Amino acid sequence: MKIGYYPGCTLKTKARNLEESALAALKVLGVEAVELPRWNCCGAVYSLADDDLIHLIAPVRDLIRARESGHDTLLTLCSMCYNTLARANDIMKNDAEKAKTINMFMDEEPDYDGSVKVVHMLDFMRDQYGWDKLKEKVKVPLNGFKVGPYYGCTLLRPKEVALDKVDRPIIFREFMETLGAEVIDYPMATQCCGSYQVLGAPDITLKISHDIIRDALAHGAEALALTCPLCDFNLGKRQDLMIGKFDGAKDMPAFYFTQLLAVALGLPVEACHFDLNRSSALGILKQKGLIKEASAA
Amino acid sequence: MSSTTDAATGVKPQVAAKMIPIFVMGKKYEVPDSLTIMKAIEYAGYKYIRGCGCRGGVCGACSTVYRKPGDYKIYTGLACQTVVEPNMYLTQLPFYPAIRATYNFEDLQGRPEEIYELYPEVFRCVACNACTKVCPMDVQVMDYIAAIKRGDIKAAAEISFDCIQCGLCASRCFAETPQYHIAQLARRLNGAYLTPRAEHLATMVANIEAGRYKTGLEELKAMNAETLRKTYQERELEPATAGDDWTPKDTRYL
Ligand code: FES
């Protein structure tokens, strides 16, 4: 199985643990993810101003690159890249007037009609690979590991690009269950972590992020599964600021979903780049006996 | 005076140059159609003080912007390389203000964050591609900016390799970035910190410094022209079919 792959900038630097674990896992699953030979930053944030077409240029250009490379489907790992690319694609497909303006502006590129399908690793697994097939490949089931999947906003909103039912999503639960984990549902799993508001309003964002973690903890989660480097920044990296500041705040291991996939497939820890996670991440995997102590060095 | 006779030699060329109209900064001139923009501008009576350097297409001093009748596109070229076209509307852009960050190169380590700190505006790029479209060297400017945004300094250095720093990219940038300065920093970092050191070069420099080739050089310097020529002509050449184990007869400098 071969699929076009759009990595996204952060996955090449600060979130290498998201990309490298995913690519290692896909390889074991027999999926060849072909990185686009040329791509640019998708813009990361979809512009909400209705007439702000200039910010659609970047994602549309990536979709044109996918088309040029002969891909019908484009795989993403980062939920923000997914959202930005999928929404831009939606415009090109369904808004003839905007599509025309954008195509005219990009007169050095072939016209684009929204015909590439943008998928996220989660719906790719569900719809194209299949949970059953994935289950067969699991070597180290995450049995007894209580994981709280965190959807955030961009996998589910707006509904045009939602991977699942906006109000009652189960896709992430299904994914984690397939890996053998004990899935913890918690009401705030689909609340926004604060996203890039962390730049302008760091304190408010910290509180919001902490509420999400507290909710997951209260429902019994031992760790969070994430799909986005910005969520990881807010819910993972910024925990250091929460501990000591909020009553009852304590360390919560945070993983990218692809790292847990790699672990369940029995891949060596090196494939997961746990050095870029909170140290508690590696700790809990050891404690649960999911990775070997020796190779963890 | 006949326009087809060369004034200096009195010779009539076989083919008379065809005169075509061009517009330099809005003023019309008739110029021979075989000239480059630079020569045509001189032909029209202008004298270059700035905006001209190597005349060979490598210094980037002569970037020119032009349009053609009935065509909305902006065209660019190096004045010293681009041949005139009838009715082109042109102006040279010998300089375009672009801020170059100041840094102490020795303090850098070749990390992408160093570029982001010096040029935070790189993240304003919206991938409009206006930079690539105007590059007279056909550098994929937007692509190297994209590479920098994802931390790939090496790719940025390689993609921007043909840049001659003319500045046209910066003149068109929607995000107001000085792309070519950023690329120069990327190439510097790549060359100094990210490319493996050439070990054999260090050995060679050490050999030279230790005086290994001094006698040979002195011998050559002491020769008269005749002997020098003879020595050169009779020098031992590595045969085209030589294998890896080939060594010259004179092994003094190996
Ligand atoms: S004068 Fe140097 S590039 Fe034209």
Descriptive account of the structure:
The complex is a heterodimer of chains A (297) and B (254). Chain A is an alpha/beta fold and 297 residues long. Chain A is 43% helix and 10% strand. Chain A has 2 domains: 121 residues, Glutathione S-transferase Yfyf (Class Pi), Chain A, domain 2; 163 residues, Rossmann fold. In chain A, the strands form 2 sheets. In chain A, strands 2-1-3-4 form a 4-stranded parallel sheet, with helices on both faces. The longest helix of chain A has 17 residues. Chain B has 2 domains: 74 residues, Beta-grasp domain (Ubiquitin-like (UB roll)); 132 residues, Fumarate Reductase Iron-sulfur Protein, Chain B, domain 2 (Orthogonal Bundle). In chain B, 33% of the residues lie in helices and 10% in strands. In chain B, a hairpin with a 2-residue loop joins strand 1 and strand 2. In chain B, helix 4 runs antiparallel to helix 5. Chain B is flat, with a radius of gyration of 26 Å. Chains A and B meet through helix 2 of A and helix 4 of B. The site of FE2/S2 (inorganic) cluster (FES) has 13 residues of chain B, from loops. FE2/S2 (inorganic) cluster binds next to loops of chain B.
User: Which residue ranges of chain B are poorly predicted, with pLDDT under 50 across at least 5 consecutive positions?
Assistant: none
Mean pLDDT of chain B: 93
Query: How many domains make up the 3D coordinates of chain A?
Result: 2
What is the H/E order of chain B?
EEHEEEHHHHHHHHH
Structure keywords:
heterodimer; A: 297 residues; alpha/beta; Glutathione S-transferase Yfyf (Class Pi), Chain A, domain 2; Rossmann fold; 2 domains; four-stranded parallel sheet; 10% strand; B: 254 residues; alpha+beta; Ubiquitin-like (UB roll); Fumarate Reductase Iron-sulfur Protein, Chain B, domain 2; five-stranded mixed sheet; 5 strands; binds FE2/S2 (inorganic) cluster
